[in-house]
Amino acid sequence: MIDAPTKLLIDGELRDAQTGRTFTTYDPAHGRDLANVAQAGTEDVNAAVTAARGAFEGAWAKTSPAKRARALNRLAQLLDEQTDALAELESRNNGKAKWQCAAEIKVAVATLELFAGTAQHLYGRSHVVNPSVVSYTLREPVGVVGAIIPWNYPLMMAAWKVAPALATGNTLVLKPASATPLTAIRLGELALEAGIPAGVLNVVPGPGAEVGEAIAAHPGIDKVAFTGETSTGRRIAQVAAQSLKRVSLELGGKSPNIVFADADVDAAVIGSLWAIYYSAGQSCEARSRILVQDEAYDAFASAFAEKAKSLSVGDPLNDDTKIGSLISRSHADKVRGFVEMGVADGGELLAGDGLSLGEGLDGDAFVAPTVIGGVANDSRIAQEEVFGPVVTLTRFADEAEAVKFANDVRYGLAATVWTGDGARGHRVAQKIRSGAIGINTPFIAFPGVPFGGFKESGYGREQSIEALDLYTETKAILQGTSPKAANPLGV
Length: 491
What we know:
Elements: E1 8-10, E2 13-15, E3 22-27, E4 32-38, H1 42-57, H2 65-81, H3 83-94, H4 98-116, E5 126-130, E6 133-141, E7 144-148, H5 154-167, E8 171-175, H6 182-193, E9 201-203, H7 208-217, E10 223-227, H8 230-241, E11 246-250, E12 256-259, H9 265-277, E13 289-293, H10 294-310, H11 329-344, E14 348-351, E15 370-373, H12 380-383, E16 390-396, H13 399-407, E17 411-412, E18 414-418, H14 422-431, E19 436-439, E20 454-455, E21 458-459, E22 472-480
Parallel strand pairs: 7-8, 7-10, 8-9, 10-11, 12-13, 12-18, 13-16, 15-16, 18-19
Antiparallel strand pairs: 1-2, 3-4, 5-6, 6-22, 11-21, 14-15, 17-20
Helix pairs in contact: 2-4, 2-6, 3-4, 4-5, 7-8, 9-10
């Protein structure tokens, strides 16, 4: 067990669940218990919503945009100062390499700073309707936001929700994933230290079937922001629709990585490794389908498989570890099942058939970087989200077929195009139905760049100025300017 905050944070206080229930969160890489955490229930969600509503109508409503900006910048500073400790806590909690967790905390810092800069710049517009009427618009906060975040990027995803919501004057009830609640609770504590009033940010860990449902259904919550799997997002949308809440959803993906024959193969290999194996493939935008033009297929497949075999898999706390554990044994079993299915369906296992780990690690929670070649684009493993360090290789003949294969899935979150022809890169990017597309780069998510999906990858954009639309209402105010009284009925 470790020393970390493990209670609910409601109205500025760390407290036990009203039922007294707790649950255990784990260190998956080492196969041991990590902490006992207070398990919120419906009653705790009610209390958190009451606190958030009180803060929205009270202390936070009286906080000027300039003070909101200062508080967010101070929170960013506190996160920055505690990056190492937070990265270790997160690494232990989800099995990801510590250096990757540290990089994600820096993204959280940048996200808070980005939206702190928007707090004083929520501009409306003015309009002369006719010579007798002038109008202007105001951007006002939606109200109380319910934010539900996943286990793969616990602190970073929390910041993606917290930053725009607080910058625009909303208050939050934040539900972290049950597998990884520890850094979210710590974020709530640091928010208080940064000067954000009690009740503005409340943290309620607990099972999605109870806490997530309660948030989506609660009449006191005005908007739900969710990141997670598509089936859960669909359920949240259904429940939230009963009270016509605003909803934004960032969901699953089965993203293509297209390698044309004229591409720099070495650069494409190195970039494609990052695009799938970062976060052990447990990332919604992972480019898990590599589509390779026939003329380049053999050279790319050989080089990529050899590089995949060279990636170090091991203790997430070691600096040289490239790939840590998966989130749990059960999830690793699911990923291994996909690999078996892919081979049974005719794929060729090019990498991933061996794994050597150091002492003290739970081998059942690890999966080696896996490459399956010769996969048909309509096979299950090329269509379903694996969410692990597994990539498929599929041949294509020409540009038209590459675009067809890229779009022939139910998701549309991200894509990458590798080509030596600049015009082709832009032409193909415009034809792919995805929210973010990199040309000769695997990186598609930065603070300031819109992030979100098409199709069953969800709706709404985060990480950018467009996110402000998700957390504000537009109000129109009209002023009559004529010296004569308006008398449309002629009475």
